[in-house]
Amino acid sequence: MSKTLKLNNGLEIPVVGLGTYKSGKGEVKRAVSDAIDAGYRHFDCAWFYGNEDEVGVALNEKIKQGVVKREDLFVTSKLWNNFHARDKVVPMCKETLSSLKLSYIDLYLVHWPFGFKESASLWPINEGEAAFSDIDYLETWQGMEECVRLGLTKSIGVSNFNEEQIERLIKNCKIKPVVNQVEVNPNLNQKKLIEFCKKHDIVVTGYCPLGRSEYAGTPGFPEPTIFDPKVIEMGKKYKKTPAQIVLNYLVSLGISVVPKSVTKSRIIENIDIFDFKLDAGDVAYLDSCNKNQRVCPLSEFSAHKYYSF
Ligand SMILES: NC(=O)c1ccc[n+]([C@@H]2O[C@H](COP(=O)([O-])OP(=O)(O)OC[C@H]3O[C@@H](n4cnc5c(N)ncnc54)[C@H](OP(=O)(O)O)[C@@H]3O)[C@@H](O)[C@H]2O)c1
């Protein structure tokens, strides 16, 4: 299994990256430092996560100490939904660069295809449809392309886009998206979307690869596969943890993954997945776990014209 994947602009993305959503202030700096020491070079950030400043402190410290060079790192960030107007994209990207204290990022993603009004709250679940903006993601994309032209980011991509939206974007863009970041875990293996993206030379990055295990047991929430007794048994067979079994399986689908952790031992564990191969029976079992159940359906926004699921 390769440790990097080639993007359609010739650049490479490391297969395993560190997720940073809900990595709290006061702990994300340590997590990013530990991850660099453990060999991570790919960091998945977003303006919405509210912690890019601290991520940036850790990245810059490691660069200053000579542990890594900037060009060794692959840093992703994302444009939040309230800022889909074309003239907002460059300023938001610059704000992220300022928080991260970097002169460029490697990948800038449109976080969701649907926008909210700038005046709405960041997560307007109680504001109804009045909070929705009808700005077309094709307009947003023009701002994303401007970020590349200005050298603020090396590559641009999308997140949570469906096949139809990607096809429409490809037909109407100057710079093709390199990545579609979507939820992928054994409960939602996304094989069809992955195949579609491969056909268009777009790399899929899988988020919630561990099924966001801290929500386990919440009513209506899909049970993360890392707690499945069969997967725990598999772990014993390969002398690996359930998380390593799941991440190895996902990477074998030809995608990159961004497991989040702020726990040093898990950060180390989650990138140590390249030294074994699951046998056909175990792959078949993990394939059979697919239920098309989402950790992140965002059904509160399902009335939006650009809602994608
Ligand atoms: N584009 C999007 O719309 C979108 C949406 C959601 C997420 N994301 C990205 O994807 C990343 C990952 O998704 P996620 O954070 O939602 O969920 P996740 O990575 O599936 O799960 C994270 C949870 O699993 C725990 N964990 C980590 N490693 C483990 C291990 N080896 N064994 C057992 N438990 C383990 C973590 O705990 P500790 O931290 O306490 O160790 C945390 O509670 C995010 O952080 C974010 O960067 C993107």
From TrEMBL:
This is Aldose reductase-like Protein. GO terms for molecular function: aldose reductase (NADPH) activity. Residues 17-290 form the NADP-dependent oxidoreductase domain. The active site is at Y49. It comes from Tribolium castaneum (Red flour beetle). GO terms for cellular component: cytosol. Substrate binds at H111. The record marks K78 as: Lowers pKa of active site Tyr. The gene is AUGUSTUS-3.0.2_04950. It holds the Pfam family Aldo_ket_red.
